[in-house]
Amino acid sequence: MEKLKNNRDIPGYIIKTNSLETCHNLIRLQNNIKTANIVKNFIDSSKKFISLDTESYEYNHDYLTEVGWVIFDKTKRIIKKKHFIIQEYSAFHNGKYVEDNKYNYNFEVSETKPLIIVKNFLNEDLKSVNYIVGQGINNDISDLKKRGINLTEFEEINGTYKRKGIIGTQDLFAGYFHERPISLKKGLEKLSIPYRNLHNAGNDAYYTMKYFFGLIENFKIYSVKNQKILHIKIPGDYKEQDYIKYNEEKKRLRKKEKEIKKLYKNNKNNYRNNDNDNDYDDFYDYDDYDCYKDYFDDSQYGIGGLLGISDDDELDRYIAEYCFY
């Protein structure tokens, strides 16, 4: 697996210190390229797509404030555009981390309806489409599933053709540009697609559709770069299960480290919590794609690394001490 790090055909953001991560990210990129090819060349023009977006209250993501969608086909024919403001949470406004554009829908008229009514409309429209498209779509799908939206028929297109599929524009971006995926705003700017009033669910759904077409129109599966990446062999000793275990442990350590930082700050008042110093794009842009982002730094997030704690038992004792301070 170590040999992959010296392969110049692999984009730099794919290469990680840990070989398991490098292999996992390379497989993901190869699947992104295959997904872009499937969308462009294997899904025919008779199929219908729905571009979906949700907005939540920035201080409590359980408060779903907006839902927007656009139904269209590959000929760019728009069949339906919808923007709903959720009546139960209409009094909650964003503005600190994301723009407050709830009442700035660019197309047709926004409708304020109870969540149960919006659910019924969306469930009905989902029956008529073959593919769901979205920027940061897994977040939107998670939000909608929690609220009873029926998405059981749809599967993520991860390099494999699906009759009913989920297409992430961030995957298409990676498959097209071979770069770390970026937010919708930055993606639209990169493709010179004009936009206004983002962070309105109806507008975001519409511009995600435009972004979708911008990414697939010029995609070429037989480009030299695509073929070089697709022909890189994944080492035989790589096992996805090993990566999953590694990633779970990494998340556990990072979570524990953050707990220590918070406890240390609250109880000793001499440990600086840097969480609020991070850019909005990294931590608060719900459209941003974190699949390839490596917040984990071995030197920083080793067990107790920030505090010089050498093992889990000592770390647990430290946490226990301040939990009952």
UniProtKB/TrEMBL annotation:
What keywords is this UniProt entry annotated with? Coiled coil
Cite the Pfam families for this sequence: DEDDh_C (PF21762)
Residues of the signal peptide: none
Domain Gfd2/YDR514C-like C-terminal: from-to ranges: 49-213
One term under GO cellular component: nucleus
Q: Which SUPFAM superfamilies match?
A: Ribonuclease H-like (SSF53098)
Q: Enumerate the Gene3D superfamilies for this protein.
A: Ribonuclease H-like superfamily/Ribonuclease H
The residues forming a coiled coil are 243-274
InterPro entries, A to Z: Gfd2/YDR514C-like, Gfd2/YDR514C-like_C, RNaseH-like_sf, RNaseH_sf
PANTHER family reported in the protein's UniProt record: GOOD FOR FULL DBP5 ACTIVITY PROTEIN 2 (PTHR28083)
Name under which the protein is recorded: Gfd2/YDR514C-like C-terminal domain-containing protein
Q: List the source organism.
A: Anaeromyces robustus
Organism classification, top ranks? Eukaryota, Fungi, Fungi incertae sedis, Chytridiomycota, Chytridiomycota incertae sedis
